[in-house]
Amino acid sequence: HKIPRENKSPAETYKFQESQGSWSPDNRHFIVPVISKGINRLLLIELGAKHKTSLLTLPNLTAFSHPCWGPKGKKIVFSGLKNGVSDLYIYNLETAEISRLTHDIYSDIHPTWSPDGSRLVFTSDRIKDSPQLQNAPLSLFEMQLSSSAPMFFLE
What we know:
The protein is mostly beta strands.
């Protein structure tokens, strides 16, 4: 299916150079970061006969990227930029609530869910067993969502 282009597109710019979109688990929706009226937003496309679209505004975030649909179809994890710092957030599609998962000086990007939705794996420049910010190479980390367990470095 080709998504028809309308004269009044909800997006001025698609952010594919720095991000990708994500399919819903039921394959009926697609979400992608866009810029609309000069504001970073998420474009939710309902695929089907009419290709309905919705623009989601995520308040207090300068930018965001790499949305990833949760396996149950109710949440989207993404990397968000606030005050120049990149952290991980979850957007609840049912309540429109945003939860901040990380809150530190490290860059946390490219999150993805485990198939059961209990964990995330993401890329970060945090140093294993070190609280200091350094020019570190990017590494993979795992986060348990159901507890306040520490993040694990994936070697």
